Amino acid sequence: MTDTFGVDDALEHIERLRHGETLTTERASAVLGLHRTGRLADYQLSSWLATIAARGLRFTETVALTRAYLGPARRGARIRRSGRTVVDKHSTGGIGDKTTLVVVPLVAALGVRVCKLSGRGLGIAGGTIDKLESVPGLRLEFTEAELAARLAADDVVIGSFSGELVPGDTATYDLRSVSGCVRSAPLIAASIVSKKVAVDADAVVFDVRYGAGSLVPDHGTARRLAGLLVRLGGEFGLRCRAVLSDGSVPLGRAVGNAAEVDEAVEFLRGSGDRGLAAECEALAVQMVRVAEPDEPEGRIRERLRSAVDSGAALSMFVRMLTAQGGDTGPVLDGGGYCRPGARTAVLARGAGWVTDVSALGIGRAALKLGAGKVFADDVIDPHAGIRLTRHLGERVAEGDVLAEVFHRDGLDSGEAVELVAGAVRVGPRENCRVPREPEPVSEADVHTDGTGVVHV
Q1: CA atoms of 66 and 189, how far apart (whole Å)
Q2: pLDDT tens digit string along 73-97?
Q3: What is the CATH number of the domain that holds 382?
Q4: What is the pLDDT of residue 76?
Q5: 414 class by beta-carbon count within 10 Å (0-12 exposed, 13-18 middle, 19+ buried)
Q6: Do 233 and 204 contact (CB within 8 A), yes or no?
Q7: How many folded domains does the chain comprise?
Q8: How far apart are alpha carbons 142 and 158 in whole angstroms?
Q9: 200 near 73, Cβ under 8 Å?
Q10: Domain harbouring 262, CATH code
Q11: 253 and which of 34, 51, 213, 388 could share a cystine (Cβ 3.0–4.6 Å)?
Q12: Is residue 409 part of a domain?
């Protein structure tokens, strides 16, 4: 179909989709093929994505879109490997979400093979690749053969997806971020699962975050999206689990690319934030369980804590960076990667307890500082970001430093400072927000109706 399918056909297809025509792998592949060869403009592909986002897709259509994202070379049955299980994980994104930087080396330190294919930021949520690009020299983009070789040599690798691995997702990922299509459940699911299939993972743990500042607004929607991800992964032969995480407050204390890498290193040294620790442990437990189903959960938790206490998890992180060409000096000498040109303090305007920290407000402030993209051609400042010196439930006096804002020298940080000041709320102790604990979801928790329609 691709050879005879032209721009006029693509536009007619978009019109028909709006009126309920079924999306097929062939039609989706033809549209993506036109864009890949330069015959379909970005704004036309954005119109196709917006149509999908507005209309929604049935489950069978989401499967078709996922196959189209993978490209013709990878649409058949997956090749099952012998030997140890390869585990991947993926987060739907949130403010301060640096769990990948923690759990990948932590789980690998327990002898589990981990191959993590990550993406860039979507909307105000930062991406793992954006964070890791603040490590000088670190190589992140691999071909399929190179990714397999890295995994065979070291049992752990984090990489970005290349056009060869997931051509359809490569074409649409950035456009989703700048065309108002970030929150579409079918587009989220097809993007995530296509990358997991592309790296030939055996099992995947999905971290589905919800709340202001996340892609998913509430707990109920997050559970349904988790069910869609688990079911879609199973359609491609993956063993899947999911964890629901409350993203209404920033995860940890750092928001920004290099700042979050530094916080992950601090965690692996044994001094992690309590909320970050709870979520990382919940994810790591599920990752080990899909690889070692007979291992008791209590024993897994003991092994994870021992890997941090002994330094094995940090050593694995350094080993991974070294294998991928990254500069490990800032980890080894303790200096860190985040070196902003200027820092501005955000002061408490009253006394009391920190009752809430709005993830949405902190995320918007980070964007103002240059930690993410508003337009497709924006350049990210790896050192821009925010460090919370006070978090939920902590007592403050008037004039105390609530946060530090990191920015380049000469940047007017006034708007970002006001956003941070508004995001960190101080009041009576009894008004403190209590985030929900991470909640595991497995195949047994997935419920779908008989029509195959997925409502997220």
Answers
A1: 8
A2: 554 434 444 467 899 998 888 899 9
A3: 3.90.1170.30
A4: 41
A5: exposed
A6: yes
A7: 3
A8: 10
A9: no
A10: 3.40.1030.10
A11: 388
A12: yes
Q: pLDDT by residue (tens digit) across 177-225?
A: 778 888 888 999 998 898 888 877 899 999 999 998 788 889 998 998 9
pLDDT attached to residue 127: 86
* Category of 38 on φ-ψ map: left (φ > 0), alpha (ψ -120 to 50) or beta: left
322 and 346 share a domain?
no
| Residue 98 belongs to some domain of the structure | yes
Per-residue pLDDT reduced to its tens digit, 307-347: 999 999 999 999 999 999 999 999 999 999 999 999 999 99
Q: Are 421 and 346 in contact (CB under 8 A)?
A: yes
Structural contact between residues 376 and 174, judged by C-beta atoms closer than 8 angstroms? yes
Q: 59 lies in which domain range? A: 7-74
Whether residues 378 and 408 fall in one domain? yes
Asked if the model's pLDDT at residue 145 lies above 70, the reply is: yes
CB neighbour list of residue 307: distance below 8 Å, 6 or more residues apart: 106, 109, 110, 313
Report the sign of the C-alpha dihedral through residues 9, 14, 19, 22, in that order.
Answer: positive
Pick from 116-120, 308-312, 338-342, 425-429: least confident:
116-120
Domain-embedded: residue 451: no
Backbone phi and psi for residue 202, each to the nearest 5 degrees, phi listed first: -90, -30
| Listed residues 74, 96, 118: the one ending a domain | 74
pLDDT for position 147: 81
- What residues are annotated to the active site? 90, 169, 176, 191, 195
Last residue of a domain, one of 50, 74, 98: 74
Residue 450 lies inside a defined structural domain of this protein: no
For 334, counting Cβ atoms within 10 Å of its Cβ (0-12 exposed, 13-18 middle, 19+ buried), the class is exposed
CA distance readout (Å), 356 to 10, 126, 334, 394, 433 = 47, 21, 31, 10, 6
